[in-house]
Batch of 3 targets.
Target 1
Amino acid sequence: MPDVTNISDADAPLEQENHAALPGSELEGPASKVGALFQIVYFLANLATNAILLPIIIFLIPHQIQILDAANHVTSLGIVESIGGIFYLISAPLAGALSDRSTSRLGRRRFWMLIHMLCASAAIVLLANAPAVWMLILGWSLLQFFGGALLTVVQTIIPDQVPVRQRGMISAYAGLAIPLAAVLGGVVVAVVFKNTPLASYYVFLIFLIIAVLLLFAILKDRVLPREKQEPFQLGSFLRRFWVDPRQHPDFAWGLITRLLLFLGYYAVSTYLQYFIQDGIHYTRLFPGKQAIQGTLQVQSIMTVMILICSFTAGIISDKIGRRKPVVIASALVIAVALFVPAISPTWTAVMIFAVLLGAGYGGYLAVDTALITQVLPSANDRAKDLGIINLALSIPLIVSPLIAAGLVNSLGYPALFAVAGILAALGGILVMRIKSVR
């Protein structure tokens, strides 16, 4: 792994401030760099957690809805995705707060990793055997809740275990896991099990169990002593979820910028398969092929670009000690990518869209994650605060499909891509309002 040792002037004081806020040595921040084994296993855990979310909503649930409710597939997909998003909205901050308070002998993160993994596994089995759309809604809602909770706990391991000077690279691993999960999941669904795609659910299930158990085995998770934990009071527990934007403006701007970008991104990604099917008419362009194969091709191109750009952006950001310029540039590239199909809804435009979106998204995922870990208000509540930041992911999961369905049904797919591009551009420009990180 590259030796990344450059720390910006903005990084070091924040790290010291967070460490000073901790109640005892049991919660002290990371002092040394993480090794190759940790990096590999952490990447696999991120890959597995995203593999139970992204391929399912990109490939499997649209496929199941086409079978169960073909006449209303656009509206039904929006309903399934939006209701599931409500459960993700609840799960992320709640899971983070519970994890922060946990005094389990297994550690604050390891205990909840196991609980969320087991519950998510049960939801996958339910989805695999769903006989109607209402069962898809139930299964996806449960998977969003426990899968989102698991993702929050796994993300918290970065500020727990990784020093600031190494977070750009480790965040790149976490960022790469997102598109790679979509592509590898698409290969499993559209190639390996193309005749029986629902069998893919069990592949994702097995991978999740193995990856989480590996991380559980190697993670040196600190145990919070019971005497360090305040007695539980519902009122004070709920009040902890409020982060005053006047006291922590950079945290608020981090949330807003992510929210805007992902509102646009999820609106497009949710309906990508239907755009290729209904907007591009893929099966007419390529007789004998299905839209799901075109979607896989787009995801594959994106992943290659994300692989290149995420690590490049992460290394550059760590070396120069700056996050904001990389995040802003990446968001603007995403915006340009989204405008391409809006201007020219053709297969050639889709290929250009895939290249640009992969490049921008790769840089954004790698460096924005590192930026966010540097604006967390308190080291005592890292998981809870990351759960709140993840509202920027969960709110779009609720709102974006409804906006997208309305735009597609009334104005068509070009309007969907144009609105998404505007939102992404705003999300990038407003990163300049963050002051404590360079």
Target 2
Amino acid sequence: MTVRCEVRGDGIAVITLDRPERHNAIDLETAERLGATWDRLRYDDSVRVAVLTGAGDAAFCTGLDRSAGIPQPASPYSVDDPLLRIGPKSRDLWKPVIAAVNGMACGGAFYLLAECEFLIAAEHATFFDPHTTYGMVSAYESIGMAQRMPYGEVARMALMGTAERLGARRAHDVGLVSQVVPVGHDLLTAALDAATEIAGHPTEAVQGTVRALWAARELSRAHALSSAASLIALGNAPAETQRARFAGRGRGFRIR
């Protein structure tokens, strides 16, 4: 089971990415299970709030699992992106989702984080985008983060690649993270505390508020997303170049 979903009796569902041996990277099975989970929660009236997290302490999610051998079409003008439908909003779920970020969150993890209402992070959490280092365009990821962070911070994270990671405290300073959970405190408990408060409010008011917030950002996001696939097709390095750069990824990094 690559995704676990626990529906509690208090109106909260806890969804856990459960591939800790792969840093909770997403393969096709995980992508399908995530989509199916959001679909199920959409119609489960007993669930009013969801908490999304990753198994283990090392990583929340490290994006697409490059070892999964996900096929791509031969045409350079076509890109099959298995992550486009893994987020709750892409599945038309308008119940609030809180992300509890433990450890690394990078690359394709931003498809998920961009569609959560707010993020709570463990103090050791880090955020980074490796795409440019590997000769890949950061399109969907950067568009999602540009809705949550100042332009300069998104640009720096995307362009620095694997050379730099955004620490939890800095992520809080720039508005990506709403709460940092100190060492020695339980991250999931902090997320559940917030979820419990929200679950106690009238359902219609909560979901209407979520939809209103997304309406405020959706127009510019839709325009940006319409260009993403073509930018990826035009800007990505050839597959063999990406593999070569990925194989040499062991360089150090700094945290800010």
Target 3
Amino acid sequence: MTGRIYIDLFTSLDGVAQAPGGPEEDPTGGFPYGGWQAPFPDERIGAAIMQGIEELDALLLGRRTYDIFAGYWPQHTDGPDGAIGRKFDAVPKYVASRGTPSLDWQGSSQLGADVAAEVRALRDRHESVHVIGSVDFAQTLLKEQLFDVLTLWVYPVVLGQGKKVFPDGAAPGNLTLLEPAQSGPLGVVQLRYGPVRTGTVGD
């Protein structure tokens, strides 16, 4: 088996991916716009997101996102979010953290010190590993090209501050568009990229 590592991020037009889901998600740096995704419910984009969730067989998360998910999804396995909650509850969850977090959610384990080697090893155990949110961790994976598919859902909003997918000082590199862009009626655009492993911009 050779699985794939997917990075899934919601981002503004100016590349900010911090706290799309709610005010308490990630207030680091005094970020005041948590929950900026909410005004753009989009059924077409929502269906594309759900397809990815249905296909995943493991989650790979940073510590902050893991804590948010663990505090929410195990209590939401019924009702409107039931399908997502049941999927997240059932699959293995791998957590990247420099500390010693309490991983009480069933199926959770911490990656070892050599994160690059551990992430590569996940391809031998799973077909579809998804990194959802986890901006800081995603930046590390992007820098090291430890991913196979980067999906960006770009929303028609400019935030002007916050953590960006590609912050200042990000490693130069090329990406290739894997499929035509999709867009919904509210102006949300799905872009799906793969890495170009040349290491030289413009090659």
